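pinning this so it doesn't scroll away 📌
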Amino acid sequence: MNNFFKYITLFSVTFSSSIYADVIEDLILPAGFKISIFAENVKSARQIAESKDGVIFVGSKSGNSVMALIDSDNDNYAETKITVASGLSNPTGVALKNGDLYFSEIDKIWIIKNIDEYMQSGAYEELPLKEIYTDQLPSDSWHGWKWLGFGPDGYLYVPVGAPCNICLKPLQDDSRFASIHRVLKDGNLETIASGVRNTVGFDWHPKTEKLYFSDNG
């Protein structure tokens, strides 16, 4: 376990570090835990993923960029923030597999291959090449933010929330809604669970490999 996951981490969105410092002083933590500010001014940070080199990649719920946070001196504070993809629509979800970075928009998922090589190069003047992994997702923005995760089977999983608050017809017209899907090798979706209004997080049991998910509703 590296240093990042030894700590509870705060991402500052709109408030100043001085305000968070006051909040931190009032927090009561279990024995053995520590809390500190790891990164500031990261717009609406949502899902995070860590590469083998310890770079933290951050998706944004309401922003338009995916960022890389670098703690170069191992003091548990990211001094460097690098934009690795921009001009996106709610790039909420991020996931890593075999050195490749995957990130979501409302209607598609992208891949940047060998992201650690790009980060090691230090040539950040140009964004790395991103490629479409799948564009088979609906474009409805209501509950359109996508969480990403790789299952024990090696496939990427992505949810599609219901495109409304209380409704039935849109779900009948398009079976992709209110479901969790597995992305197949050809980019098509295979439904794993339906009747899921809007999951904002899921994971697999390390022994049984059963899928557990939250449902916002």
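📌 and the second one:
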Amino acid sequence: MSDKNSSFINLPDLPASVDNAVKNLTDKPTQGIGQTFADAWYLVFGGITQAADKRRMKYAHDLELYKQELSRAISSIPEEKRIEPNIQTTAQALENSKYCIESEELRKMFVNLISNSMDNRYVQNVHPSFAEIIKQMSPTDARILKTLRPKSILPLVDYVLENSQNHDYETALSTVYISSLSDVSLENASFSISSLERLGIITINKNSFIPNESIYIPYEETTYYKDFSLKAISRYASKRANIHKYLGSFTPLGENFYEVCVK
């Protein structure tokens, strides 16, 4: 089969600025799906002009990758499982994705969202808000989320400076999470957890913690906490570093988002 016939999506007679956009279907059973998607793609990306500067060239390159990834993902859906794309979800996803396609992590989430919205095995879990959620994520947020598991409980802590006399405290670093990603700092991982909470992906319960307290031991051994503890001892007579332990978990929305956009 030629490349022309194997491509799932096609856009006929597009202007030169988007001549690398996805191609139209030649397979009759799925022509309607392809045309609806093609129309949405043209509305979103048809007006993009690509000047011959490095930034535009990179965007053109990433747009081509996006097209190829979408084509492969949608083509991989068994024909009997394919359904007409929901224009509310698809159009929003395409519109929001044009700001994010230079990030591989975010681009892949949009590919998953769009392709799974055309798959009747996933469509019941798709929500129109998912496109906006991805748009508001950073690439680090996406990477952190990919390391999590929806049914797992996240150990979280606050690093606080506590007054031993009256037990008042001030927070030095909140929503602390130790990521498995070695190139992501403790501060950035914690910031991403806060971002995922804001987006409704996870919920944080500060009134409960994981009974197996050995899970929290790594939080006592971070460089940040050790330095913080030494500074407290050297600077204050009655204040010491302490750890407030609690937990986080996925929301129902977060579980569906993970199933559709991440898994």
